[in-house]
């Protein structure tokens, strides 16, 4: 499909306009709609690049040179001339498109040679110089010297005029003249017409006789010995039944007796002979059908009084052979819609507003000893905020040393990468210390090592805030904070957003963002319809210190809420009611569809040259892709479904697609992958999925199999220790065919949490102390999965 997309871009470039390219498996041939400026290409089987370029170049020629009104009026006024218009207009536009783009000449030659070798024009067994004039003209202009077409002097004069045709009026005049010449030619060949008619009748009569004598083909079961023995036994049982359907008790039948074996052998041999005779006659019939079709093609010229081009008709019939009969319907979506993403972003200052967003409460705790609930104490907002700041300070104190250590590791890796790309440059100044070696080497100049500057990195991270994430939210927030702390330390700009479909604003604008983007929709436009969708800005490198400290304090309370809300034995249950932190569906498709605009704004704000985008999820999308079809009489939006089709996304002159067919309903991975491919194309970003999985071997295998597309349990990579490495590192990676560049499968729940590691040693011996410190550092690093991987991504 990538080749098709590249050809789509080629077509737009050749056409010098933003024509619409549509790959339609229902189209029998390539065609250009000169009125609506649509280039229709069938979905072909695998074919050569030259042949594709031929089809595209030909149709783009129509785009440049065929007038819509002229073509439409001419064909409607005299439909019988359509074949002549085809032949002469093809010659004109192909000559002119090759003059405009000389490089296409080679593609046209090779493409038509390929079609000639496949006998697309139906002339393989014919003397081309005995064909009607219209067909010789068609072959001459398409195949050139390949066919060796000859013309009489009077015909050559007419051919030369076709070769010089410039305007549509020239084509009309020449087509009418060619129609007259063909009518005269048909009259002159009346004798040939009668001969063809007689031959046609003779062939049809012969075929009818063979068909009549052919009879019915015996079933394959009649050549099966076991089946014949069984049937003979059944016949014997039926013959032995009395009027009540009972068989005598002493009835016996030996299906393997010599007598039965001999009869079976005779029946099988007879059936085999009848099948052989039937197939021999069928071969004769098939051959006669081909001969009849050839004669009918020749006779059709006379039957239509010369108003017919056999080679043009054959070409259009044979194009069907190029079609991919298994191709699925394509559906196209324009992603370049003017959606203002700021409408759906909840920025940090609004998100972490204690006055409006927070309703703090505690829950009673179950006292096992007394068998009753102990009432909790409600905290005020100020008390909760103070608690959050205390927890945030503790968190920073515990994590800052390891973040500092990772920052040092990052700087070392970055420096190593720079030196790896370093090159030696000659200064142009003589190195006097090397003058003695002038007879041995020409390398006498001073040199300097040039280390290239690293590109400006940036990280965008999107966190799935779906209901199934509730057991992972505490660890996810911890890991996201660590990534943010690391990025702040090394100076990498970043934004961390949660995405949810449960986040309606408390103070909605006068104009709803959905309605704002429903104006001036065109067919095929992406439709943003999720009224609850929001990007929730969790953390950002642009935050001032006061906003940053406030965010960390708030997140500490949210982590406690996610951690303990379902833990009835917890000593401390504190949480904040905030609708933007509600866990609901997974609007991943919407998040990815709007992400290109987010990436554009981010890279512009920070002058980012190398963007890395991370989607942290634990499942697939629960939202559909909506494509605008029309508005009904009441102004309601009607959308088209992608189900059972292949989604193609148009972004300017590019068309992005995959080989996957869209499925039905939720978890529609095919649509998500096309959106991800489109995002990479627009943003230039590397794209990673941190995919959280329940800590269960079967769950990991299912995800691994999904990503690598159908591998079984004995998959070589799995058997080589993929899962063993995952247990060791708490994650492992897999490379999907489409969408994300890399998927990191990560153990969820408790394994995701950072926690506080303590130094454990068995004794005060030097060996135990060294092992204790080594394990301590290793555990601290392995519990910061995200940060470690970010270092790998951007160093």
Key descriptive features of the protein:
about 15% strand, about 800 residues
Major β-sheet strand ordering: 5-13-12-11-15-20-22-21
Distance between the termini: 33 Å
Individual helix count = 24
Task: Please report the total strand number as a whole number.
Answer: 22
Q: What proportion of the residues is helical, as a percent range?
A: 40-55%
What share of residues are in beta strands?
Answer: 5-15%
Biggest beta-sheet profile: 8 strands, mixed
Q: What does the overall shape look like? A: flat
Q: What does the radius of gyration come to?
A: 38 Å
Category from helices, strands and their pairing: alpha/beta
Q: Low-confidence parts, pLDDT < 50 over ≥5 residues?
A: 418-425, 448-454, 505-511, 755-761, 778-783
Whole-number mean pLDDT: 78
């Amino acid at each position: 499909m990538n080749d098709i997309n590249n050809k789509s871009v080629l077509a737009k470039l050749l056409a010098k306009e933003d024509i619409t390219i549509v790959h339609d498996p229902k189209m029998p041939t390539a065609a250009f709609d000169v009125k609506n400026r649509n280039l229709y290409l069938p979905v072909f089987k695998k074919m050569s690049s030259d042949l594709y370029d031929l089809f595209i170049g030909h149709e783009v020629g129509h785009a440049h040179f065929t007038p819509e009104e002229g073509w439409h009026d001419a064909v409607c006024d005299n439909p019988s001339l359509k074949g002549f218009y085809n032949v002469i207009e093809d010659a004109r536009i192909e000559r002119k498109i090759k003059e405009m783009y000389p490089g296409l000449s080679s593609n046209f030659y090779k493409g038509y040679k390929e079609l000639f070798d496949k006998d697309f024009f139906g002339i393989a067994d014919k003397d081309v110089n005995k064909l009607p004039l219209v067909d010789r003209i068609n072959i001459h202009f398409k195949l050139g010297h390949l066919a060796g077409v000859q013309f009489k002097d009077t015909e050559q004069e007419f051919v030369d005029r076709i070769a010089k045709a410039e305007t549509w009026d020239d084509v009309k005049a020449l087509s009418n003249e060619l129609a007259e010449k063909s009518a005269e030619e048909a009259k002159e060949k009346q004798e040939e017409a009668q001969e063809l008619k007689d031959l046609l009748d003779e062939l049809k009569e012969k075929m009818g006789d063979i068909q009549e004598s052919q009879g019915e083909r015996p079933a394959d079961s009649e050549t099966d010995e076991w089946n014949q023995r069984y049937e003979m036994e059944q016949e014997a049982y039926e013959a032995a039944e009395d009027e009540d359907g009972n068989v005598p008790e002493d009835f016996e039948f030996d299906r393997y007796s010599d007598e039965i074996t001999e009869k079976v052998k005779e029946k099988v041999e007879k059936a085999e002979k009848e099948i052989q005779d039937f197939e021999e006659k069928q071969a004769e019939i098939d051959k006669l059908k081909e001969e009849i079709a050839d004669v009918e093609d020749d006779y059709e010229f006379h039957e239509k009084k010369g108003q017919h081009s056999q080679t043009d008709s054959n070409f259009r019939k044979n194009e069907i052979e190029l079609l991919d009969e298994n191709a699925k319907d394509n559906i196209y979506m324009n992603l370049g819609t003017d959606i203002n993403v700021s409408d759906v972003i909840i920025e940090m200052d609004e998100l972490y507003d204690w006055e409006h967003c927070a309703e703090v409460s505690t829950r009673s705790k179950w006292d096992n000893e007394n068998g009753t609930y102990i009432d909790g104490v409600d905290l005020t907002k100020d008390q909760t905020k103070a608690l959050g700041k205390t927890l945030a300070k503790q968190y920073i104190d515990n994590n800052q040393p390891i973040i500092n250590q990772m920052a040092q590791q990052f700087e070392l890796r970055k420096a190593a990468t720079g030196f790896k790309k370093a090159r030696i440059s000659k200064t142009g100044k003589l190195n006097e210390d090397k003058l003695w070696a002038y007879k041995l080497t020409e390398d006498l100049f001073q040199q300097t090592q040039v280390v290239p500057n690293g590109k400006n990195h940036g990280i965008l991270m999107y966190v799935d805030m779906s209901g199934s994430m509730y057991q992972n939210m505490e660890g996810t927030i911890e890991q996201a904070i660590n990534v943010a702390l690391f990025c702040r330390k090394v100076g990498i700009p970043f934004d961390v957003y949660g995405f949810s479909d449960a986040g309606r604003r408390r103070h909605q604008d006068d104009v709803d963002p959905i309605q704002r983007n429903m104006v001036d929709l065109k067919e095929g436009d992406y439709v943003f319809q999720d009224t609850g969708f929001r990007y929730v800005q969790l953390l950002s490198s642009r935050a001032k210190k006061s906003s940053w400290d406030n965010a960390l304090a708030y997140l500490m309370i949210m982590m406690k809420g996610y951690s303990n809300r379902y833990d009835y034995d917890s000593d401390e249950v504190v949480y904040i009611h905030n609708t933007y932190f509600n866990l609901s569906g997974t609007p991943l498709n919407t998040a990815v569809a709007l992400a290109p605009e987010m990436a554009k704004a981010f890279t512009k704000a920070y002058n980012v040259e190398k963007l890395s985008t991370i989607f942290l999820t634990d499942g697939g999308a629960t939202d559909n892709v909506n494509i605008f079809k029309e508005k009904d009489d009441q102004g309601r939006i009607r959308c088209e479904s992608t189900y059972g089709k292949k989604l193609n996304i148009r972004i300017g002159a590019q068309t992005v697609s995959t080989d996957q067919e869209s499925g039905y309903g939720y978890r529609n991975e095919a649509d998500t992958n096309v959106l991800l491919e489109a995002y990479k194309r627009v943003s230039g970003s590397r794209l990673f999925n941190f995919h959280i999985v329940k800590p269960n071997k079967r769950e990991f295998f299912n995800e691994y199999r999904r990503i690598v597309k159908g591998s079984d349990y004995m998959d070589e990579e799995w058997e080589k220790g993929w899962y063993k490495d995952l247990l060791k590192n708490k994650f492992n990676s897999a490379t999907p065919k489409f969408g994300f560049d890399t998927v990191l499968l990560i153990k969820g729940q408790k394994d995701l949490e950072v926690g506080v590691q303590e130094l454990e040693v068995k004794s005060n011996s030097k060996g135990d102390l060294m092992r204790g410190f080594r394990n301590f550092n290793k555990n601290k690093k392995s519990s910061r999965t995200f940060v470690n991987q970010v270092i790998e991504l951007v160093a």
